[in-house]
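Let's practice the habit of predicting before peeking. Look at the sequence and jot down your guess about where helices and strands might fall. Then scroll down.
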Amino acid sequence: MIYFDNSATTFPKPQCVLDEVRRCMATYCGNPGRSGHSLSLAAAKKVFECRELASELFGASDPDRIFFTPNTTYGINAVIKGILKDGDHVIISDMEHNAVWRPIHKLAAEGKITYSIFKSMTAQDKCSPLLVCANIAKHITPKTKMVVCAHASNICSARLPIKEIGAFCHRHGIFFLVDGAQSAGHIPINVTEMNIDALCVPGHKGLYGPQGSGLVVLGDNVSLDTLIEGGNGINSLSPEMPDDAPERYEAGTLSTPCIAGLWAGLRYVREQTPQSIFAHEEMLCKRALELLGNTRGITVYAPQYLGSNILWNINDQSSEAVASALNERNICVRGGYHCAPLAHKTLGTPEGGAVRLSLGAFNRQPEIDGFYQVLKNLL
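Done guessing? Here is the structure:
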């Protein structure tokens, strides 16, 4: 099997991740923070070690600024609904995943907020950070509370200039939320240096942890209203959630095996380095673009970007049919809209979307060449 669906979830996982999840389940999977016995303390220690690693990787000022979530979508919802109030205005990019668009749209449909969509200029050959920030500025109103954008697209390899956007938001007193679902583990991110108020990332994609793991990194002095409430082992006599992070945002039992696996995934990424992982994916992407871009009957969208994602179609064939045909030949890709209709509209894909080929650390060049040999038979 050739696996090219790493933007959905990376596969395979590093052996160290598999080993740590198994070790957790077998030897120390108590309920962290709920008891004083050895298993609970061992689980709590692993949870804290994972916070420390994430804090180091993402430039948080304190490990307590990290709280765990089941996925990126949960984290994005927690931040959006924990910050916005009635009457607020939000600006999002035209490349957003439904993880951003749907919660924002729902709040707007309920009459609680308003929102605007800025042009990322992703379909252009060249676009400066200054122009992107100018496009955001066009939408600012006295009620603008938040800017939300993906660091990297989930359908192509385009990236938004979040450092410059963060500085822009900081100057204007606007909260900056970043969806790091497709950049964490691939591209260095420092929330402090980039003026990011909240970064939401998955554990199971570029961090090579298990599904069911994710985290939010909060900037300094950021406090959210709670999305859910419940027990966390802190101040049990009080009916209120505690004020301090991270316990304020972690009601109920944490998924210790997932967090243990995420800890191992973070160690793997730190050892490999995001820079070397990205360089490997970039090399594979360049090879795939050379093959696809020089083949009659194939359209590649936003081919000017190098990274982990390539979006393409066989002309006059539906993306779902092409993905299905490749699956029958043991090649895993994804067709359709990839939960990102705004981004597909921006790139001008046809009805039915396009096929996404997404790369990871464990892919190799012979897989690219083997995929292309199979693809030629579908033309």
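How did you do? The domain at 273-376 is CATH 3.90.1150.10 (Aspartate Aminotransferase, domain 1).
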